[in-house]
Every structure is written in structure tokens, then in C-alpha cells.
Amino acid sequence: MSVRLKSSTADGQLREVFGAPVAELYTTATAPDAPPALTRALELRSFLALAEEQVARVRDRVHEAMAPDRDMGELSAGDLRFDAQWLEAALDARDGYRAALGGLLRTMPPPDQQSRPVRTAQPVVAAALPPSLAAPAPARAGAARARRQ
Asked: Is residue 40, in this structure, part of any structural domain at all?
């Protein structure tokens, strides 16, 4: 399943900030004039959705292993330790993506004030130095050194 179709805990906040459902935001982000903040927000949202999916998978696996109707002989302390480590890593990733996305949304300008990239012409120096100011190049400038044998 595409990450665009996965839900995340940030979808409501993105809809509120950008004024459109997440599916439309992904379409808008592919346009050449898409605001950079939208593109970054959707990248973070995609990572968040994947991290949240990992948290849910590990949670479900642990719940299944601990189900009351499971045979007690199937329990493995090693598997549960591994799941605990995996869950900790997934939760750390989720929390990091949530914090980064929240920080981006708090610091970006309001949608009506977002700047568009502006192309400016690079200044060109058209004047040459008068011969009296131009320093002559040293006699050996650019000459390769002879190799000693």
C-alpha cells in the first residue's frame, strides 16, 4: 500500500494548516510551483505514517503472543525482548517525526504569506579594467614546472 494511502496521526493537522485533504496535498506537492513547506511536511508525514505502521505491527504481534488462549509453551522471552527493542525504536522514530513535523508547521509562514521562489538575473560585469590598472601576469604564470630527473 502506498504511503499516501496510509493514515497518520498528523493528517488532521495537515488538513487544518493547508486547507485540503492529504490526498489533494500530495497532488499539489507534485506541481512545479508547490510551496517547499508543503513538500517537506508531506515527506515528514510519509515517514510518520510508516513509523506508526511499524508501531502497530509490533503492538499487534505482542498482543497475539500474549493472548489468553495461546499455549504458554509458545512464549519466548527472547522474542518478547526483541519486540520490545523493535517497539522502542519504532516509537522513537514516530516521536521524532511528530516533533519535526510539528516544528515545521509551527514555524512556517501562513499559507497566504508563503513566498514563491523568485528568479533574479545575475549581475554581469561589463567593464574591463583599464590597462594602467591591470597587472601584467608573471612571466612564468601557468607554466608547468620541469620535472627533475
From this structure: yes
Region 102-129 average pLDDT: 66
pTM: 0.69
Residue with cell 512556517: 108
Report yes or no: 41 and 28 within 8 Å, Cβ to Cβ: no
Give the structural domain span for 30: 11-110
| Span 121-148, pLDDT tens digits | 566 555 665 666 656 666 665 555 655 5
